[in-house]
């Protein structure tokens, strides 16, 4: 007997096929002389309806065990379904129960649970419809990302998680140490004696793989990272995680226009892929979570993103008939309210804002001839805000050194990064995508903690 | 003018095509009236030969700048090559130099450098033939892994990097903390006051995503992790990294035989994929690094792995006409010398040893009816030793609780892991693959530090 996944049976199973399935009970309905069992194996949102006739051996004993959450194996024959809601169902010939789930204690009963409650049972919540759909879509997003870059000849590069570099986000770094926190060794001057630590110096969890990705782009032309990054920011909001996944492509011989083109093609590709591979899950989100997600996906796939400069954006915001909490003027960073106005109200689609003031952006972004702006761009998505941030990188050694010093850093600390400009420097550009923000955007899930299997947030590192 | 990647030109470029390429100079050869420039863009081991005629505008000035490592853009026409070693070459019509590389200071001159030296310039070493080939093959291995699992309906799940669980590798864990190491807060009893730390408790870098992968397998049936893992083990060897990538599939409704079948199919798939996508790089490794890598790949793809139990392995080792440093007897863990004897000398191919003594294996492995062995398996590869370790997991609540207690741990600490056995437990199995070991195995590179872009080892966290 060939084992089959339920997604595939629901899609293409034919009457009279003999099959074997394995999964978990979602619901049980007992009628006179027979019972309907909805069995789910995680391959799809929909479950397969199994019909058990009372003539089956041990019918009573088995039915008693088949409560929500119990695991089982069923062999039987596919038959056309008489009932509503399914094309086909499985007439059981043999049912084996692997593990029961006591209805008195199993937390996932048929009723609807709040996401807050489900976060406290993170080890079980993937068994619900919502989280099943979220993590299937999350996987599809990830697969789409790899497909997009691999097809275009980009190498996936693994940049380091533990880093000695603290130049990008000082104050928001997690320390990594092999030292015993109960007994930190001291130098003669009473400083921490890092010489005794595992790496012989202070080390942190990375906040970005970009600088190392640039190293790799200077050898392979086109590369991308896709890995975990960290912020020790004490933000207890629905938008922040201490540990999240980032995607960071980096392209040699590429300017900001090429960067924006790639980012737009990238988002379109991912949405298309997910709609094609997870149509049922996306339909579910549209019905149950946010009735705009399908329209949003359509909008992204079929429209050009609106491109405008920061200076143009400021001008539009100044003209806007809206009272902003943070007043707008050239030189200030855009706040969430401004980003939302542009993407949601004014253009009603993703917006790419470019050429930000140099003062509010990172040292590595390429200074324009006006010496006031840098070749940076942010993609602002309706409801999510900034989903992608990118820039052309400063490839000129002298300009980069000046910018490093101006931001209070030591060029010596970045000797290897500067070497990239000393030896065979080229125009290059890249962007960063917060992967969980993308999954939120895709699914309409309101809280970022509900799109990653095991969220890490202040005071919370369960499971 | 359409920009082309050099790999693609070398594969399928045709005479008379007008093209544009961008890359870096590998070598320059000046002859009377013209020059040959080998240009590499990282897309392939081989470079494209560019022919520059002295009639080109600024010929002398440009040639002077085109030293090894300089970056450039060339437009021109493809012509059949008169020289040996290439089918086609590019007759330059315009050459633009982006960035020079001073031959007096640029560390990568034409001569061969030791891997030790190249590790000190990790930001440049990817520009060499060896590391170019290594990281293209590394990417191909990674792409093959995703392809293998995605095609089989496995979900890629992101298990947490920061974990509060210390039950798997106590003593070899990196601490993660938001506390200031210079000023660790204390409780009244002078213990570390973790209540003030970011997560409100001690946290570490993960050593494995397996337990969380089991959570996900209990909802989606088949999942895999592919992410970084960590060991704070002070091992300064060619086989150890403090930070490395692991692949950990986990399958519900699967026993140890299914686990071994999957692991074998998996390795065959990855080798096949890499041979197909990186034939030139693999040829390079076979010629320059280890003249057995192609034979090994062939062996893996075309032979069934040898399967035997630990008990059988011990018996074969006892009969072996070899003086082992560690004498063999039932109950002892296999040492590297034993593993190598089995894989390299006795069977001359990968060997799967299964059913190890319970005492030397982890608590979560399924106890067999003999109550002496567990359903564990290791795949031992010639020259590499253990490349995959897997097991069927203990799915019986009572047995698992006893094993946890027997190993000196607290069942309460693993309440969520035990819940998986309380509610809908199923037979399940999985394995772990050290990704860098796989890349070593594939390429023949002797030191594990040379198959990851930025190695993390004791006293070393550069770049």
TrEMBL record, chains A, B:
<dbReference type="Pfam" id="PF00152">
    <property type="entry name" value="tRNA-synt_2"/>
</dbReference>
<protein>
    <recommendedName>
        <fullName>Asparagine--tRNA ligase</fullName>
        <ecNumber>6.1.1.22</ecNumber>
    </recommendedName>
</protein>
<dbReference type="InterPro" id="IPR012340">
    <property type="entry name" value="NA-bd_OB-fold"/>
</dbReference>
<comment type="similarity">
    <text>Belongs to the class-II aminoacyl-tRNA synthetase family.</text>
</comment>
<keyword id="KW-0067">ATP-binding</keyword>
<dbReference type="InterPro" id="IPR004522">
    <property type="entry name" value="Asn-tRNA-ligase"/>
</dbReference>
<dbReference type="InterPro" id="IPR006195">
    <property type="entry name" value="aa-tRNA-synth_II"/>
</dbReference>
<dbReference type="Pfam" id="PF01336">
    <property type="entry name" value="tRNA_anti-codon"/>
</dbReference>
<keyword id="KW-0648">Protein biosynthesis</keyword>
<keyword id="KW-0963">Cytoplasm</keyword>
<dbReference type="InterPro" id="IPR004365">
    <property type="entry name" value="NA-bd_OB_tRNA"/>
</dbReference>
<dbReference type="InterPro" id="IPR045864">
    <property type="entry name" value="aa-tRNA-synth_II/BPL/LPL"/>
</dbReference>
<dbReference type="InterPro" id="IPR004364">
    <property type="entry name" value="Aa-tRNA-synt_II"/>
</dbReference>
<feature type="domain" description="Aminoacyl-transfer RNA synthetases class-II family profile">
    <location>
        <begin position="135"/>
        <end position="453"/>
    </location>
</feature>
<comment type="subunit">
    <text>Homodimer.</text>
</comment>
<keyword id="KW-0030">Aminoacyl-tRNA synthetase</keyword>
<dbReference type="GO" id="GO:0004816">
    <property type="term" value="F:asparagine-tRNA ligase activity"/>
</dbReference>
<keyword id="KW-0547">Nucleotide-binding</keyword>
<dbReference type="InterPro" id="IPR002312">
    <property type="entry name" value="Asp/Asn-tRNA-synth_IIb"/>
</dbReference>
<keyword id="KW-0436">Ligase</keyword>
């Amino acid at each position: 007997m060939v084992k089959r996944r339920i997604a595939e049976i629901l899609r293409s199973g034919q009457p009279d096929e003999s099959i074997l399935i394995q999964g978990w009970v979602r619901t049980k309905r007992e009628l006179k002389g027979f019972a309907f069992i909805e069995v789910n194996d995680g391959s799809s949102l929909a479950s397969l309806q199994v019909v058990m006739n009372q003539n089956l051996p041990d019918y009573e004993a088995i039915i008693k065990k088949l409560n929500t959450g119990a695991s089982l194996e069923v062999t039987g024959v596919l038959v056309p379904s008489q009932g509503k809601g399914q094309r086909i169902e499985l007439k059981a010939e043999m049912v084996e129960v692997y593990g029961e789930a006591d209805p008195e204690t199993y937390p996932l009963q048929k009723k609807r649970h709040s996401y807050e409650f489900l976060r406290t049972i993170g080890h079980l919540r993937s068994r619900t419809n919502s989280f099943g759909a979220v993590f299937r879509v999350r996987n599809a997003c990830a697969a789409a990302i790899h497909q997009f870059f691999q097809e275009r000849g980009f190498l996936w590069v693994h940049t380091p998680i533990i880093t000695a570099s603290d130049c990008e986000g000082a104050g928001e770094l997690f320390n990594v140490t092999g030292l015993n926190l109960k007994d930190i060794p001291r130098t003669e001057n009473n400083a921490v004696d890092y010489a005794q630590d595992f790496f012989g110096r202070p080390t942190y969890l990375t906040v970005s793989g970009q600088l190392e990705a640039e190293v790799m782009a200077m050898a392979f032309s086109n590369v991308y990272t896709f890995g975990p990054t960290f912020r020790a920011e004490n933000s207890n909001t629905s938008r922040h995680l201490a540990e999240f996944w980032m995607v960071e492509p980096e392209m040699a011989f590429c300017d900001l226009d090429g960067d924006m083109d790639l980012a737009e093609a990238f988002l379109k590709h991912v949405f298309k892929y997910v709609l094609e591979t997870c149509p049922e899950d996306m339909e579910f989100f549209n019905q149950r979570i946010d009735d705009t997600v399908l329209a949003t996906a359509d909008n992204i796939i079929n429209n050009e993103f609106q491109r405008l400069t920061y200076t143009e954006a400021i001008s539009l915001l100044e003209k806007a008939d809206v009272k902003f909490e943070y007043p707008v003027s050239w030189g200030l960073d855009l706040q969430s309210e401004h980003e939302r106005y542009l993407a949601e109200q004014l253009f009603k689609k993703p917006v790419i804002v470019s050429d930000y003031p140099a003062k509010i952006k990172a040292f590595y972004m390429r200074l324009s001839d006006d010496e006031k702006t840098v070749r940076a761009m942010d993609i602002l998505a309706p409801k999510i805000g900034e989903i992608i941030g990118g820039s052309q990188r400063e490839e000129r050694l002298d300009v980069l050194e000046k910018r490093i010093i101006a931001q209070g850093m030591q060029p010596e600390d970045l000797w290897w990064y500067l070497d990239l400009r000393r030896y065979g420097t080229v125009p290059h550009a890249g962007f960063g995508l917060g992967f969980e923000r993308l999954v939120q955007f895709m699914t309409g899930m309101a809280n970022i903690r509900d799109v990653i299997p095991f969220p890490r947030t202040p005071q919370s590192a369960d499971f």
